[in-house]
Amino acid sequence: MGDPPPDPEPRPQQPSSRRSSQVSQRRSRELSHLPPTISEEVPRIAFDDRVLQSGQGILASQNNFQDWSSGPPLTQQENLTMFQAEEAQLGGVEYPSLNMGFQPQPYLEEGGIQAARNTSLMQQLQQGQGSLFQQLDSAYLETQPNFLGQFNMYQGEDLQFNQGAPHGPYMRDDPALQYSPSELGFMPFSVEVPEPEPRELAVQNAKAYLLQTSVSCSLSLYEHLVNLLTKILNQRPEDPLSLLESLNRTTQWEWFHPRLDTMRDDPEMEPTYETADRQKGLFLRSGAAGEGEQEMEEEVAETAVPNVMETAFYFEQAGVALSSDESFRIFMALKQLVEQQPIHTCRFWGKVLGLSRSYLVAEVEFREGEEEGEEEEVEEPMEGGEGLDAHAEEEGEEDEEKATDVIPKPMWKPPPVIPKEESRSGTNKYLYFVCNEPGRPWTRLPHVTPVQIVQARKIKKFFTGYLDAPVISFPPFPGNEASYLRAQIARISAATHISPLGFYQFGEEEGDEEEGGAGRDSYEENPDFEGIPVLELVDSMANWVHHTQHILPQGRCTWVNPLQKMEEEEELGEEEEKADEGLEDVEQEVGPPLLTPLSEDAEIMHMSPWTAHLSCSLCPQYSVAVMRSNLWPGAYAYASGKKFENIYIGWGHKYSPENFNPPLPAPIQHEYPSSPEVMEMTDPTVEEEQALKAAQEQALAASEEEEEDEEEDEDEDLED
Amino acid sequence: MDAESLLLSLELASGSGQGLSPDRRASLLTSLTLVKRDYRYDRVLFWGRILGLVADYYIAQGLSEDQLAPRKTLYSLNCMEWSLLPPATEDMVVQTSVVKGRFMGDPSHEYEHTELQKMSEGEKVFEEEVVVQIKEETRLVSVIDQIDKAVAVIPRGALFKTPLGPIHVNRTFEGLSLSEAKKLSSYFHFREPVELKNKTLLEKADLDPSLDFMDSLEHDIPKGSWSIQMERGNALVVLRSLLWPGLTFFHAPRTKNYGYIYVGTGEKNIDLPFML
Description:
The structure holds two protein chains of two kinds. By secondary structure, chain A is α+β, with helices and mostly antiparallel strands. Chain A has helices at residues 15-18, 22-38, 44-54, 58-66, 74-94, 105-127, 133-154, 159-164, 181-190, 198-210, 221-235, 240-256, 270-283, 292-301, 308-318, 324-340, 382-386, 450-458, 481-496, 534-539, 562-568, 576-583, 686-719, and strands at 343-352, 359-366, 431-435, 443-444, 498-500, 504-505, 524-525, 544-546, 610-614, 625-629, 635-640, 643-650.
């Protein structure tokens, strides 16, 4: 039939024969693997030797395979492709890694048969060793009907096609009939005709060309197309043409990123599962075991947990909401917090966004007596805060006479430390707990100091989401991010916590206790409060009042005279008079008293600090009044009937119509005091030098004359 | 965010507290459907909300078949009646750049800006104060355009370029993988590429021309102008622009859900370099 191979190479392992492709190498490897499974009585090496050295059958076909692109004879080409098909079949059973992209289903049932068929084939091959190609070919031809029979039997789903054209060589080439890669692999069997026709030859050549593996990987275009078409036929997407490119890409991707079915967890998913695990704790009832109902009753009776869901509902009406799912998690997290801490009242303050994490803030009040347990008094972080001011005032009375390197003592005295407000008063009225995500532990924020508030007003920084992160800013902020967060919370609370007029009233007995006009600092709920109609709340700012104390420029809610403190320390200071001079004109700072209506709020550049609107303009009867702060974007308040609530969700920055302008660095200090003693003299000019020289000479001459005169005088005296 | 999946999208984007009240949501769903029919848009995006002192602007955008073609922008004050905004021009941007402060919520409101103009009368050249009136509508157009150009985001692979040029929605987009979702390089500016052609051949070598045809967020200036956060235990990635605070982009990895919404005052954060 076909011509003998043009140049049969004796050993396929030679490099020259490897050039063709990895497929052929793989095939030869597999062929060498086959014998042990087939005929165990024949030692593998011997068999290999026989196969290789006899140089017929397989070898010839392999050589042909390697040279296919140069147009090998048809029959050997067919042998070849048949081998390839067998390999694919075998691969389906024994080497799963080889055809991951192939559909496994068609193969599985065939596996056993294929193996059996291969055995017989190999036996025939062994018999035919040393004989002519014709014999080999005829052996294939003899087996062919069997193969086809088997094929038709086991390709159940394609039965109708195969029955329609059981032996039609060209019908099977029709792409419409190709159904699965296995069939494509079998194609050569059916087109086995004694006399090759030119068209068929071309088809075979084309296929052989497609079977070439690419340079960089062991995948051939043929296999890839098979995978791709299989995928399209299995998934049946709508309008496949438009998807072709992306399908192409995903198929290729899948080939290289097989989805491995391993016991190991996907490391990427680890944090997700961890979070879910952590949050699971929130949803389990704490003391769940036996006495369920009893506990339930107790809990129903009294709890400090706020009704977050109700608040979330009203804020959703207002168009400011975390999703209800998130709200519920926060609710559960607050419940957890109340269980862990001796909390009297608790409120969801809001959410402060950070760069990599956000903070959920809870505002709590401890029960009487349970206070400050774990709070360690960090002793005055003042020094850090005032480095910036320590400039320029160093009057340089350096004692030049001493001449030793005594480090000059700065004459500057730090301004008096303004004491922090007591807990339960002023800016430290409440305690704040923060956590990054529901389920994570709550962390308590430290009390805020006046200097922190003063400095926080001067800077504008994003929160990172890590409480211990340093705040790198100018002017420097005393403390880390926890302190900065606490300072901002205090500022936001003071500016944006509002309630309808009349909800709170001043306690009667507290009358005028507070001297100094800072106003009363406590209030109580008004039991007679009837609620203000929503429309009135929206119409007039006077119906809303601040119920958090204004923070004075000093950083406290109640003013403290820094001078008094100085007097206490008088015995220490030497320059107290000087300091007193500086502070003498300190005026008492007065802020608006508690429960001041919003209508008194200062305007920001001709714009009102609050925007009021109805939650739903379509049916005002049932809507709630919503206040939006323009000064602190993200702060909202709602009121409806007797209910009201404040929330803040934002970046924690105050709105300013002007750009943020960091203060300029302080002027450079003088290195030394400039006085005549340390001034360098200017060099004399030539004229000056000459003049000096002349003057000196003159003086010299004059003195000589004088001497002469004196001598003369002496002489005269002597003479006398 | 897609108007059709508005409810889910709002839920996913709610981490920044920017929601819509139920009545707004319902009316948007109704009216945007009608907008799509009346203006014959291929897709309608709910773009967001610009908070004014008196009222808020609700903004929607209509997209044609080619996703990167200039978008039509509509605004509404009550979520029902939509009015088409003119396309932004260079002049508008220049003209409105002098306006500062918050939006009012009234499109016919006029900002007054006095500027010095050089007048020449014969030989004399003198400066004269001229009061320029700038309509808020113009400012609205310009701000929306600026935000769109600066911070509109789309995940890589959500759009693909067809061989003939138009850009279509990629139907096979199945979401970014988790590891990709954490990188800024997997997100693109949803606009005509500007930086892409300035890249060197070496940088372009690894790009897939049908997917990487837009600028990625990776090299945005200033560096660090995006906050990228994983929420809900890695089930949601949220990008927040620090340059235009209020813009939130969300994407649930390995799903097709993605989108962005702007709810803010319409002011750029020019203090950003001091705040990082």
